[in-house]
Structure formats: C-alpha cells, structure tokens
Amino acid sequence: MPRRTERAPNRLLSFIALFLAMGLFSIGCRTAEQTAVRSRDELARAGDGPSARPSTLPAGLLVGNRIEELESTVFVPEGWTLELHKKRDNTEHRTWISPSSKTAFGVIFFKLPLPVGAELAFKYGFLPAMREAEGEAKVIEQSWNKATRSLDFVVEGGKYTLRAAMYVRGLRGWTYYAGTVRGQSEDQIE
Description:
alpha+beta, 32% helix, two-stranded antiparallel ribbon, 2 helices, 9 strands
C-alpha cells in the first residue's frame, strides 16, 4: 500500500502539469488568434495591410492596387512593370521592375503553420528560400522596428541586395522589399 500513496502524488502532479501545459498552450493559441484578427482589422483601417503608401513620395507617383492574393493594397510607382508572379502552396510573390531596370520592388505574402513570429519566419523561411533561389543569402543588417512591428533587414543574395521589412500577424506574413543588382548603387528616387 505505501507504493500506491507514493505513486498517487506523482500521478496527480503529472496530471496537474499536463493540465497546466494544455491550458497555457490554448491561451497562447487564443492570443495568437486574437492578435491575427486584431491585426487584420488594424491593417484594414490603415489601408489593407502594412503596405502603407510611403510618405516621402508625392501621391501622384503611386497607384494603389488591391491584390487579393497578397491580402494587401500595393502602391506601385507609375511606369513600373510586373516582372515576376510566383505562387506556391503557402506563398504568393510578386515583383515589379523600375523603368530603368535598376531597381525592383516586391511583396511576398505567406501563411505560417504556427504563429512563430517574424524572426523565426525570416530565419527558417525567407533565408532558405533566398538561398535556394539565388545560391546565397548573407544577412548584412537585421533589426526589430518597434514603431511598425516589423523585422527590417538587408540581405545579399547571389545576384541581388534586398532591403526589406517583414511583418507577421498571427498566421499570416508579408515581406516588402526593394532590390538592386549587387554592386550597383541604390537609386534613392526609385
């Protein structure tokens, strides 16, 4: 009989630990779900996504296009042409090229299986995809932007240097980037 009394508290503690773990997991999932819903509402009020029109450019230079596949309104400068449109299971990627062909602007929309956040999505999603596409992805700069709640970064690929911002809201994310061919100077106007 003494053995049962020794095991009973162990079983009870195990049950309590399991119950607490399940509770914390469900709270985490609910918080992520609420964040995703709140963020979509916030994004809708702010112009359908973290793709707000850059305030440094005159309004006449930009044309806003709602692109449902990107779940965003994208402001593309007039005269830029859609160069790339890739679709995979969980991603949608579009790139526009400037009239001079020196600069590219792109949006990657992606869905996550878990609410992992921007840093993990960057490290385990973006960088491997860039390495696969360009042969390399060297991180030059990376920082968290509290004001926009985005991961801002500069990455050099085999052919391009990208300056980007990644936003993750729950199970959805966006990467907005400007790219130039490596070795070419950045055109501030473009």
